[in-house]
Amino acid sequence: MTEHEQLLARVADKARTVRPWGRPSLPEPVDATAPARAEAALGFGLPPLLAELYLRIADGGFGPEYGLLPLLDSPSSGEPAAVAQYLARRESGREDPDRPWPEGVLPISGWGCGMYACVDCRSPRATVVLFEPNPGDPALAWYVDAPSLEDWLRSWVEGTGWYEEGNEDVDLVPWTDARVRVKPSRAS
């Protein structure tokens, strides 16, 4: 079994036993066409590992804090799906240029209080960044959560993320790419 397959197996095992907010069960995985439909709506590709999570484990509902958002639909989560979140945030950035949303940065997991873990779908390693808008200054709202989606998942499985008890003093590094990735979104 490859390292990649081992990580997916570990994530699946934890997802089956530890779900955010005591949800009674995991949603079913997405159908085989969902990643392509998501990519068509977004205008960019999903990192392969992210697509595999949705195809092989579940349509959200697992992971740190509130768990992964559904990919395209959000019947039970009460929150818009990842694709809808991205499109709405890009539109909002067009309406309020002081609060732009970077191109290719897909919200994948809510932290509450407006905070989201997001995958930079344009980075080679699928960097996971934290959007933390509460300080108020949009220039100070972005931090590197993990150098890759793989690292982010591993920290969740191993209980070593910055959000875990005992790790609260970890200082996250600002994500400086946000400023250069806020070109206007394509017309709706």
Automatic annotation (TrEMBL):
Knr4/Smi1-like domain: residues covered: 29-155
Membrane-spanning parts: none
UniProt-recorded name of the protein: Knr4/Smi1-like domain-containing protein
Gene3D superfamilies named among the record's database cross-references: SMI1/KNR4-like (3.40.1580.10)
SMART domains: SMI1_KNR4 (SM00860)
Listed Pfam families: SMI1_KNR4 (PF09346)
